[in-house]
UniProtKB/TrEMBL annotation:
Protein name (database record): Pectinesterase
Catalytic reactions on record: [(1->4)-alpha-D-galacturonosyl methyl ester](n) + n H2O = [(1->4)-alpha-D-galacturonosyl](n) + n methanol + n H(+)
PROSITE patterns in UniProt: PECTINESTERASE_2
Species the sequence originates in: Hibiscus sabdariffa (roselle)
A Pfam family hit: Pectinesterase
Active site: 207
Pathways involved: Glycan metabolism; pectin degradation; 2-dehydro-3-deoxy-D-gluconate from pectin: step 1/5
Family to which the UniProt record says this protein belongs: Belongs to the pectinesterase family.
Gene3D superfamilies linked to this entry: Single-stranded right-handed beta-helix, Pectin lyase-like
Length: 326
């Protein structure tokens, strides 16, 4: 198993994330600008798809549809235009799948009163990855300001198939803004593709960020729930040193009520996890000292860390846009 604990350093180039956390939002706004200010910088297909978004409203007892599932069903197969599904506050007890043939779908909530999308699927009934409350298989998927919950009971270590995923993301070039993910074991299946998470909160107990995605987590909180057994944050599934995947956590924080937790453990043969939080040597709080690290934990040099603290890690400057406003 390979774990990288990477120091943050200020680098040249707009794609590089600034060393000071207080500057991150201003940097992001100046780098990932709205579509009208990105002429010639986005992939042409992306620019075309985003030019005239369609808005669908979901609301209990009103709106265009009363469920998210019905709204997604209305998106045409082979969709080539951004479809923003605006979700009113409330609880939506649904198990949702966005199929591969429906790219450019956005689920948008109200940041001041976020909707709750919840389901109690388990590995015993659906299989682990298919137990997710939301399964995003399509490319260019976006979720912003929603709570995604798997409400299945916390595994007790005895029941077989108690794992329960809140979100599985498989589609390439997907983004998440201000999304809260609630679960215990296997909360987030960061499965495959390039993904961006900003200002998110991810909660769980065991392997609760897992898969073989290539993902950048910016300014997000990892919350470790208490568990009588082992608590482990990541289980990254990189299968060979030639496979270009990994997780990079930049300007985030790890909190929770668990009595200690492991950053990660091997699931496949060559997992890669990068954490960036003011530099490993400047971390504070319990568990921050590098003296207790395993021998394979590496302190990266300034040169080594550069690829992991840049939007270029996931090629984001060619496809990433700020969260929509309607």
């Amino acid at each position: 198993m390979v774990l990288f604990f990477a120091p943050v350093v200020l680098s040249q180039g707009s794609a590089q994330i600034p060393a000071e956390k207080s500057k991150v939002n201003a940097w992001f706004d100046s780098t990932i600008k709205p579509l009208k200010e990105r002429a010639g910088t986005l992939d042409p297909d992306v620019a075309k798809a985003e030019a005239e978004p369609k808005i669908i409203k979901v609301k209990k007892g009103g709106g265009d549809f009363d469920t998210i599932t019905k709204a997604i069903a209305s998106v045409p197969i082979g969709n080539s235009k951004r479809v923003i599904i605006s979700i009113a506050p409330g609880v939506y007890n649904e198990k949702i799948t966005i199929d591969r043939n429906k790219p450019y779908v956005t689920l948008l909530g109200d940041p001041k009163n976020m909707p709750n999308v919840t389901f109690d699927g388990t590995a015993k009934k659906y299989g682990t990855v298919d137990s997710a409350t939301i399964i995003a298989l399509s490319g260019y998927f976006v979720a912003a300001y929603i709570n995604i919950v798997n409400s299945a009971p916390q595994p007790d270590g005895k029941m077989v198939g108690a794992q329960a995923v809140a979100l599985r993301v498989l589609g390439d070039r997907s983004a998440f803004y201000g999304v809260n993910l609630y679960g215990f074991q296997d909360t987030l299946c960061d499965d495959r593709g390039n993904h961006f998470f900003k200002d998110c909160n991810i909660r769980g107990t065991v392997d609760f960020i897992f898969g073989s995605g290539k993902s950048l987590y910016l300014n997000s909180e990892i919350y470790v729930e208490p568990d009588p057994g082992l608590t482990v944050i990541t289980a990254q599934a990189r299968e060979s040193e030639s496979e270009d995947t990994g997780y990079s956590f930049v300007h985030g924080k790890i909190t929770g009520e668990a009595k200690g937790a492991f950053l990660g453990r091997a699931w496949k043969s060559s997992p890669r996890v990068v954490t960036v939080f003011y530099g490993e040597y400047k971390c504070t709080g319990e568990g921050a000292s590098p003296s207790g690290r395993e021998p394979f934990a590496k302190q990266l040099t300034e040169k080594e860390v550069q690829p992991f603290i840049s939007l270029d890690f996931i090629g984001a400057t060619k496809w990433l846009l700020p969260p929509p406003k309607i």
